[in-house]
Amino acid sequence: MQFSDLGLSEQLLNAVAEQGYQTPTPIQAQAIPVILAGRDVLAGAQTGTGKTAGFTLPLLQLLQQQPIPRRPRPVRVLILTPTRELALQVFESVQTYGKHLPFFAEAIFGGVSIKPQIQKLERGTDIVVATPGRLLDLIQQKCLDLRHVEHFVLDEADRMLDMGFIRDIRKIIALLPASRQNLLFSATYAPEISELAGQLLHDPVEISVARRNAAADTVDQLIYPVKREQKRELLAYLIGDGNWQQVLVFVRTKHGADRLAKQLIKDGIRCAALHGDKSQGARIRALEQFKSGEITALIATDIAARGIDIDQLPHVVNFDLPQVAEDYVHRIGRTGRAGAEGRAISLVDPEEAYLLAAIEKLLKRQIPRVADTGYDRVTLDVTAGKPKTKAQPQAATKPKSKTAARAGQHRAGRSGNSDKPGSGRSHSRPARPAKRSPNPSR
Ligand code: AMP
User: Fold this and answer.
1) What is the pLDDT of residue 311?
2) Are 274 and 342 contained in the same domain?
3) Whose CA is closest to atom 4 on ligand 1?
4) Is 247 a domain residue?
């Protein structure tokens, strides 16, 4: 199938061709005709499947098929995303695919000054890509009117619910006109998603491009059983020994991200930390440095890493396993994007074995273990349950309340110095462990 078979306009086909895309991805092939036909959609699509173009292209075309409204233009397309990074990324996609079309789009998210957003909205805009909190702020300030929205997209709906946005989402939906097209995208299907879908969608077409709750098939997954205190050294070794040029490392807490970044810089690895306490400027800078190859490693918490889109990211490392098994799917979805091969490595301490058990239950398979990591041999007992003796570090990934989620989203401020790259382009190899045999026992 070609893009030209999907009924897209010449302007959109040109924009797609300029991106160098040859053929539509499965989600695009399935979603584009259905959205063009005006149907509601429930799409189970992992990140990296090309889902953003899957809804952006047909929505732009639907706008194109209508007369251009008088200024100030009313908002006709509303796209909600869980994080500012994703909002920015979807906004960039709208601009990229809509570059030959006469539409205005704005990205609306917290953590930055509200004034420029107000000024832009006053001029009128056809498409708004927003995070829920700032959108509601702007509505309360009467800077935004949703009564003319014709197309509503809930992107990464599962993450929205995880982050405690359900009440905000309901408030926003209540402000939309009754007659509209709704598109819901979610990587995983918790029962709450089905409930939300039932309320939001009218006779939806269901599209699923990957097995539900299945991790990307193109990702090679591997577990390194290792003591917590040896994780940093092992990571530095893997980066140096494998001559990795680009690795996204997930840690559980903001503090853990800063600490690991500082330690890796001492190991001679160019890296930066990315988390919710960083200012928006520092977050954007860290991402740009990572994308351009200026830094090798990006050390991120789940929320900050949401929406990171880097073509063919080769390595993802779980320095800490996520507290919620579904996050593992999201994390490793950062690699092996749009059909490219990737490798996801998890460094697992025995105390995290119960988290691994939950992940493997979700995936319905065992992830191969490296038999000899070169460090002290440890056993991961996935039947043991959560250890009772030690308190688990507080999860930075799952704010318990909406307030907590918002606090993480909106707080801007101190940007540690850990996002300064290390001094050398290449990293010195860290001390080699006593013996190494990184062959997985498969
Ligand atoms: P997404 O799942 O929307 O985050 O997209 C994942 C990546 O796939 C992005 O980097 C897109 O630029 C890329 N992409 C989207 N559509 C295609 C396509 N048809 N062919 C190749 N790459 C694509």
Assistant:
1) 57
2) yes
3) 48
4) yes
Q: Which domain holds residue 378?
A: 219-426
C-alpha 324: how far from chain center: 15
**Ligand 1 in reach of 133 Cβ (< 6 A):** no
The whole-number pLDDT of residue 385 equals: 80
48 lines ligand 1 (CB under 6 A): yes
Mean pLDDT by 10 residues, the chain (442 residues): 92 95 91 97 84 97 93 94 90 96 95 91 95 96 95 94 90 96 89 90 88 54 95 94 91 95 94 87 87 93 70 85 87 65 89 94 88 88 76 41 34 29 35 43 34
Three-state SS across 72-99? Answer: CECCCEEEECCCHHHHHHHHHHHHHHCC
User: What's 202's domain CATH number?
Assistant: 3.40.50.300
For ligand 1, atom 23, name the residue with the nearest CA.
50
Whether 49 lines ligand 1, by a CB cut-off of 6 Å, is yes
Q: Does the residue 438 lie in any domain?
A: no
Q: Are residues 317 and 297 in the same domain?
A: yes
Q: Is the pTM above the cut of 0.70?
A: no
Q: CA dist 411 to 140, 318, 331, 406, 415, Å? A: 20, 25, 23, 8, 11
Residue 51 in contact with ligand 1 by CB distance below 6 A: yes
Q: Is 52 in the pocket of ligand 1 (CB under 6 A)?
A: yes
Query: Which of 311, 312, 313, 330 maximizes ligand 1 atoms within 8 Å of its Cβ, making it the mutation to test the pocket?
Result: 311
Last residue of a domain, one of 160, 186, 208: 208
Question: Does the Cβ of 334 fall within 6 Å of ligand 1?
Answer: no
Alpha-carbon gap, residue 408 to 410, rounded angstroms:
6
In short, whether 340's Cβ falls inside 6 Å of ligand 1 is: no
Number of domains in the chain: 2
Amino acid at 3: F
Looking at residue 422, what is its pLDDT? 33
226 and 201 both lie in a single domain: no
